[in-house]
């Protein structure tokens, strides 16, 4: 069965117009149970017995979505305000298995089972002020007693079965009366780990985050030191050619990517991840207010975005972010001469205002980034460059951070300058 739905630019415009013009209340509820992504591939083998691969994904989704107008809605003055209440839960099972069929209708299989469970439900507010070009989001943070959670577990087993439903295989019993027809691959309970790899309840951020291994036999889960040891071995040169720093870094990140792609492995392992408000001095909601602008300059354009990020609760934790990006064309305005924006500049500043939690003072803090790049351009050439002459690209950047809202007053600075020339 195939479901197909086509969306174009007008479809999204119509949906946004509907969302911004409905007057009272909108509710949406959906429960789905799906079996998708099923793959069954069978082929002969060199030993003369058929071999098959089977993979499937079975999932259930429960989604509840309520939308209502806010009290501050004023369509005549261009103020859009909506309140969203949402609840979401997701359960899934993923199966990957290989089968070998014997001549007496007996099948041997190795199968990996992965199960997932995810649930959360809060409210959110969205407001848009058209005259001021201001967009505001307010998100509720999960309660300490009802955290947002993600649970997964994986195990691998070997089985013997028949190709007839209800039949009990007897091939193994004849040679091993005490053996079971289904066996979970394990090295024993003494090799299983159950420990927190992260467990932080931060009053500074007003949040609690925890992650725990359970029923886990992965070597890297045995201890924090073992995890860092394996991570360090990823970037060594022992198993890489040529043996240089560049190859070690690039191929190391590839090893990490492969690990995440094929995770989990054969070993059984479970992970339980939770996120919520902190127990003391929690942040109950996060307010994000963004204001943007686009300004045409003499020979380029500037994009600006400024925002306030407020962690709200019994204690206010205020943050500010400012981003500017501009590009410029230094070539003269001559007909038939292409515009080449050869100068680019990017600046970003993230700052935190001072606040106090209990007896602890958290001073203001800021991180600043600035990068400038210039490409070579010959102003009198139609193709922008005289390839017979030396050319160069310059790059300058700076990163600073410290307990001061002014970037120029930071004592910790990293300055980068580079030039590439022919």
Order of helices and strands: HEEEEEEHEEEHHEEEEEEEEEE
Radius of gyration: 30 Å
Distance between the first and last residues' Cα: 58 Å
- Stretches where pLDDT is under 50 for at least 5 consecutive residues are none
Q: Could you say which structural class the secondary elements and strand pairing correspond to?
A: mainly beta
Number of helices: 4
Kindly summarize this structure in a few lines.
The chain is mainly beta and 422 residues long. It is 11% helix and 52% strand. It has helices spanning 9-21, 171-175, 224-234, 245-261; strands spanning 25-43, 51-69, 79-101, 106-129, 134-140, 148-162, 182-184, 196-202, 207-214, 269-277, 283-296, 300-313, 317-328, 343-352, 355-357, 360-362, 365-374, 392-402, 412-421.
Describe this structure in words.
It is a single chain. With 422 residues, the chain is mainly beta. It contains 4 helices and 19 strands. It has helices spanning 9-21, 171-175, 224-234, 245-261, and strands at 25-43, 51-69, 79-101, 106-129, 134-140, 148-162, 182-184, 196-202, 207-214, 269-277, 283-296, 300-313, 317-328, 343-352, 355-357, 360-362, 365-374, 392-402, 412-421. The strands form 2 sheets. The protein has a 17-stranded antiparallel β-sheet that branches. A two-stranded antiparallel ribbon has the order 15-16. A hairpin with a 3-residue loop joins strand 11 and strand 12 (300-313). The chain is extended. The two termini are 58 Å apart. The mean pLDDT is 82.
């Amino acid at each position: 069965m195939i479901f197909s739905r086509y969306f174009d630019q007008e479809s999204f415009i119509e949906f946004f117009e509907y969302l911004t013009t409905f007057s009272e209340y909108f509710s949406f509820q959906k429960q789905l149970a799906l079996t998708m992504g099923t793959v069954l591939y069978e082929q002969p083998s060199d030993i003369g017995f058929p071999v098959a691969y089977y993979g499937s994904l079975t999932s259930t989704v429960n989604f509840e979505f309520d939308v209502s107008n806010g009290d501050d809605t004023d369509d005549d003055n261009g103020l859009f305000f909506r309140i969203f209440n949402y609840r979401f839960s997701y359960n899934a099972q993923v199966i990957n298995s290989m089968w070998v069929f014997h001549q007496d209708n007996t099948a041997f299989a190795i199968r990996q089972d992965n199960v997932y469970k995810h649930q959360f439900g809060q409210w959110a507010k969205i407001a848009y002020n058209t005259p001021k070009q201001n967009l505001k989001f307010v998100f509720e943070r999960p309660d300490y007693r009802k955290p947002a959670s993600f649970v997964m577990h994986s195990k691998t087993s070997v089985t013997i079965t028949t190709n007839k439903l209800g039949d009990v295989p007897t091939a193994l019993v004849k040679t091993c009366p005490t053996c079971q027809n289904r066996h979970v691959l394990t090295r024993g309970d003494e090799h299983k780990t159950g420990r927190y790899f992260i467990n932080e309840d931060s009053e500074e951020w007003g949040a609690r985050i925890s992650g725990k291994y359970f029923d886990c036999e992965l070597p890297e889960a045995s201890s924090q030191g073992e995890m860092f040891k394996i991570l360090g071995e990823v970037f060594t040169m022992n198993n890489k050619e040529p043996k240089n720093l560049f190859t070690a870094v690039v191929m190391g990140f590839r090893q990490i990517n492969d690990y995440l792609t094929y995770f989990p492995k054969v070993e059984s392992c479970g992970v339980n991840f939770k996120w919520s408000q902190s127990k003391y001095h929690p942040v109950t909601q996060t307010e994000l207010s963004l204001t943007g602008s686009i300004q045409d300059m003499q020979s380029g354009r500037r994009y600006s975005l400024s925002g306030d990020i407020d962690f709200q609760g019994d204690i206010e934790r205020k943050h500010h972010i400012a981003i500017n990006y501009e590009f410029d064309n230094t070539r003269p305005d001559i007909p038939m001469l292409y515009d080449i924006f050869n100068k680019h500049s990017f600046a970003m500043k993230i700052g935190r205002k001072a606040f106090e939690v209990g007896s602890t003072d958290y001073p203001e803090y800021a991180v600043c980034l600035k990068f400038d790049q210039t490409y070579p351009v010959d102003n009198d050439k139609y193709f922008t460059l005289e390839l017979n002459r030396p050319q160069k690209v310059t790059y300058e950047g700076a990163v600073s951070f410290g307990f001061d809202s002014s970037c120029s007053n930071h004592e910790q600075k990293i300055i980068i300058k580079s030039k590439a020339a022919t």
